[in-house]
Amino acid sequence: MNNEKRETLIASLGKNLPEPSVNNVPAVPVQNRDIKDDYDYSRKTYRDLIDKGSAAMDSMIELAVDSEHPRAFEVLSGMMKNMADITDKLMDLQKKKDDLETKKSGGKPQAGVTNNNVFVGSTTDLQRMLAKGDVIDGDTDD
């Protein structure tokens, strides 16, 4: 009976443990998934608000022009300010995501292509570096 309980416990634990990664690719940590999910959800929400707000603003422009009522223009200006704020929040969201990714990569900016390099030093330092062979050659078509 004791062995049976043990088997049941092991089977139950196996159901609750995460599945092993496929093809030796590590599973995405829960925190990273949460950040990505939250970012995607927030971005979608902001974009939906911008789309719906643009449609509402078009209708409000027609109403304000047709009615020529000062309150309609006041509401329209408030809608324009809200749309600008939402667009600004969307850009802030992107910046925050980039900051999180930079922080995760060790605080260093993402590596990119360097087109121009500047050597800062004396000609003697440059000659020593060239003599040692500390120069990285680019792609050449020889």
SSE layout and pairing:
Layout: H1 2-16, H2 30-67, H3 70-104, H4 123-132
Helix pairs in contact: 2-3
Mean pLDDT: 78
Based on the coordinates given, report the CATH architecture of the domain at 29-102: Orthogonal Bundle
Q: Give the proportion of residues in helices.
A: 55-70%
Beta-strand share of residues? under 5%
Quick one: CATH class of the domain at 29-102?
A: Mainly Alpha
Main β-sheet: number of strands, strand sense, barrel status?
A: none
Structural class: mainly alpha
Low-confidence stretches: none
Q: What coarse outline follows from CA principal-axis ratios?
A: flat
Number of helices: 4
How would you sum up this structure, described in words?
It is built from 4 helices and no strands. By secondary structure, the protein is mainly α. It has a domain of 74 residues: Helix Hairpins, CATH 1.10.287.
Short key terms for the protein model shown above:
142 residues; mainly alpha; Helix Hairpins; flat
